[in-house]
Amino acid sequence: MSTEARPASQVAILLGGGVREALMAQPLLRACEGATVFASPDAVGTLLGLPSVGRALVFDDSPRELFRVFQRLRTSPIGTIVVPFPARFTHVALAYFSGIPRRLLVAGVNDWAATVHVRARRLHPVEANWRLAAAASQRPVLAPGEPPRLQPPDAVRNQAMARWPAFVGGGRRPLVLIPGGGNWSRQRSGPIWPAERFAVVANQSTAERIILLSGAGDAAQMRETRAGIAKPTIVINMGDLTVEEVAVISELSLGVVGHDGDALHVAAAARVSVAAIVRPPDIPPMGERVVTLHVDDFEKLPARQVMEAFSKQARVDTYA
Predict the structure, then answer these.
(1) Which is higher by pLDDT, 2 or 313?
(2) β-pairing, 2-4 with 53-58?
(3) Which class for 159: exposed (0-12), middle (13-18), buried (19 or more C-beta within 10 A)?
(4) Which strands make up the sheet holding 80-82, listed edge to edge?
């Protein structure tokens, strides 16, 4: 499958991962005008509205699809390939064996595969990809670029309000919670903040209605969280939503509280108030309205601390 947007350049971007990784790679996608972008079925939805993309080719990590991408890279007139940070070994190896003469990676364990190494490993992935973008486009980095952005069209916004009229739109904004991983295709592999504390946040918030976003493998967390909420609550399955629809639901809310995952990064890119609850090796989203609560043990993070941080951010947004 491919989508045409503009004539392709001789730059290819091998975009591994899902929606979260695609958003963190957005500085690179914006900088490489006309690039051919190889993306997963989940991630391709984030490319809508990016006029810089020359061509988008959809692939997954099955052996058949990887071989198809390998053949295309070997036979295309591509002179530069970039693997955004963080990079998977599979995609790094694919770039290396493609034989493309100029291969850009963030310096680290995969230096063997790169011809150009960009030093940025201790930076947030968005910042690391700013540096990759500068190297790929051969422009100096004068200042940090913008954080990831999503701007859904009005048609998607109107459709969402019509689909959930009691929860989205209408003046009184709901609170959106992501008690599970909040990913389209992959389950969260690490620990999570206890569901009952998400319920406390819901009950103590000023929101009259609550939306729970349920990703892959999140059903148990949804049931447990919903059971403790004493307000009108709806569970929306992310498998039934596009990236733009999740952005709109976030846009029309008081804010979003949740774990590192696709949905939280979408909310941050939609420029809403976000409280990111993270522990190593989680990567919080980047955005001017994001407050991050770093902990080593989720069990030691009380609901009160999340409420205070979220309320403080909301006051900043109100008077900004």
Answers:
(1) 313
(2) antiparallel
(3) middle
(4) 2-4, 53-58, 35-39, 11-15, 80-82, 102-106, 116-118
276 with 290: CB under 8 angstroms?
A: yes
Structure tokens at 102: 């100029």
Write the single-letter amino acid at 317. Answer: D
What one-character-per-residue DSSP string does 7-52 give?
Answer: ---SEEEEE-S-HHHHHHTHHHHHHSTTEEEEE-TTGGGGGTT-TT
Give the H or E element holding residue 236. strand 233-237
89-93, 174-178, 310-314: least confident range: 310-314
Work out the end-to-end distance of the chain between its first and last CA atoms, rounded to an integer number of angstroms.
44
Residue 310 · residue 291 · CB < 8 Å:
yes
For the sheet with 255-259, list strands across it. 233-237, 210-214, 175-178, 255-259, 274-278, 290-294
Cα 14 to Cα 23, 108, 144, distances in angstroms: 14, 18, 23
The count of other CB atoms within 10 Å of the CB of residue 119 is 11
Question: What does the DSSP assignment read for 145-172?
Answer: -PPP-----HHHHHHHHHHSTTTSSSSS
The pLDDT of 262-280, averaged and rounded, is 96
| pLDDT above 60 for 83 | yes
Cβ(179)–Cβ(236) under 8 Å? no
